[in-house]
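Retro notes, item 3 of 5
We never archived the inputs for the beta-D-glucopyranose complex last cycle. Fixing that now. Sequence and ligand:
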Amino acid sequence: MTDTRFQSDEWKIIETQFEPGRGRDSESIFALGNGMMGQRANFEETYSGDTLQGSYVAGVYYPDKTVVGWWKVGYPEYFAKVPNAPSWTGIIIRINAEELDLAKCEVRSFRRELDMKEGLLTRTCSAVMPSGRVVEVIAKRFLSIHEPEKAAISYSVRITGGSGKVEIIPWLNADVYNEDANYDEKFWENEFSSSDGKRAVVVAQTRKTAFVVATAMENIFTLNGKPAKGTTKITTTDKTAHCTFSSDYSDGDTFAVAKYAAVLSSFNHPVEGLAEKAMAAAGEAAVKGFDAMLADHRQVWEKKWEHGDIAIKGDIAAQQGIRFNIFQLNQTYTGDDPRLNIGPKGFTGEKYGGSTYWDTEAFVFPFYLSTSDTHVARNLLIYRYKHLEKAIENALKLGFTNGAALYPMVTMNGEECHNEWEITFEEIHRNGAIAYAIYNYVRHTGDQDYLTEYGLEVLIALSRFWAQRSSFSQEKNQYVILGVTGPNEYENNVNNNWYTNTLAQWTLKYTSDTLEWLKSSSLVKYNAVVARTRLDTQCELSLWKEIINNMYFPVHHDLGIFLQQDGFMDKVQQTVKDLNPAERPLNQHWSWDRILRSVFIKQADVLQGIYFFEDDFTEETIRRNFDFYEPRCVHESSLSASIHSVLAARLHDTESAYTLYLRTARLDLDDYNREVKDGLHITSMAGTWLAIVEGFGGMRIRNDRVCFNPVIPAAWQSYSFIIRYRNNPLRVEVNGAKVNVVNLSQAAIPLAVYGEQVTLQPGEEKRFEKK
Ligand code: BGC
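Structure as it came back at the time:
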């Protein structure tokens, strides 16, 4: 099943073959980003082979018309898309009027190398053009994470075979489109370009949303390492700008261009003067130069690795996998802007439209919480806080009242923007993950003020939703939640999804307890929250209590398991072993009807709930549920393997945990699902981190203490990770015999290893016998 095209290396992803049939796959794997923009690894020179051109700008979206046929009240108005933005990477190479295009050349050697330590992409190739001329290209590029509106390319071409005329033409192009546009519409309009003779800029505006993006360049040409003497001319059309450098060449000459690009958007700047600002930024980059920009960029990456690396000894594939995942997460979100979030594909493709899903709270949040300064996770919560009003409006549209909030399943700006009726509408469990993230944040950081200032407002609105969405069943004499879709999207419109009911009850309880806590710690603040939310502390709180105490949960007493939903045992009971491997993945072979009535589970559902609330269950209960559900799970969501891996490690089944870990860690590198061409699975990459830190490392936060219960896969000699607890960094190293913990911070850290409680003083290191 695996397909390792890349060389083993701890810090690099290395491709050594030119495989035109896998071009899109590699464009995704080698994509770069810096939190503010992203770029697929499209070739700089002209390429007439198959390619998905992709440049993306954070925060910029287009509300594409949905393709729903029969409209019903409550349907989302649009399906948000991240537009493929004006492209800044192109460099045309023309030698005696013949254009370099690898699709038309004999490619003699080819190497692409992504250095994850430095965030640098290098491509070298040697190709024979149809005329017989040989060119050797070295292209390096990075998207500065130090100055995230800037990027630079250093591109050199050595020409052998005769002499003549060469043209090197860096260009900008606003004539771009999205492959996944629902109606083949263009997302951009009002394009224009301009130049001051030295620099050029193209400007384009998104239709409907009117985001303006200005993309500028300045280019510096050299010949054999010295300033080149040819002529340079900038020409522009409405949508493009070309900077044509022409010169004579002799056999063996190496021409190079340093292309400095700046991408500025109205998401961050006033529209007026945007084009000039972008040109000035490209100019500043050119003055600073490629090497100085790269040095600053490297330094930021060095810090990121210092804070969040995971080192694995003895298993290079696992090492490469986890670093690739950490690298991609850090490329996608840097956490400085609470208006931004993490799309399932980040900046690496069009699919999922760059929008925010429950993935953020349920899977990605712990990664940033433990590897970044506290403000990063806080900003992810603030993102939802800022969308609260829209979530209340969304719930109102669906018939809920009194400030109840239903957050969207998929969003850009707080509005629901997904195509699919059942999935959008009935996966109300997303509200639960948002509440859980608040709880997770507070227990990790100790930032109680967050609750008072923001968190409680969100929790109250979510609780109001759960209280209204639950209904009292006379038959059961309990509260039920009907007509939902759980995390398992392979069944829709089910009653009493155990996971959803669990999250609903828990949210009501957490909100009530938090209100109680605030009331006893600061009546003034409590009253302020009550006034702000117009909470009826009599009626509302007593209803919540009633629901908490009388929520119905489907269980199977004989099997001793929680039931995924009321009707689960009516299904034909089979396990994945009964499936014909040729029919996998099911979603590409079976009708939707067959999938929906089958017992097969797309991703952790009951087990997702057990993962969240593990401490509420005995090991025996966890085991029984795991042993029942895992064999029925086809793991057809990239989010699935990691949660199963954490639970398998919790159940001391280290080898299954390891198998599941490898599946998530190298999902994209080895293209398990044959879809990496569409982009990387950024949100599931955080699951890989969970599988190591929470799975093998057994990290949990309990009673203001960071706890570890490490296990180690047989294939590894050792592994180590750095996490932050209350913003204090801590390094944990595990080998077959010992667990070594070092407090890297200036504060004392209360911890427990295998239940042994100690407080580690600043700089202190302690060894524990491995159990
Ligand atoms: C999963 C959802 C997830 C979405 C985006 C789907 O395949 O089932 O849980 O939110 O992908 O990652």
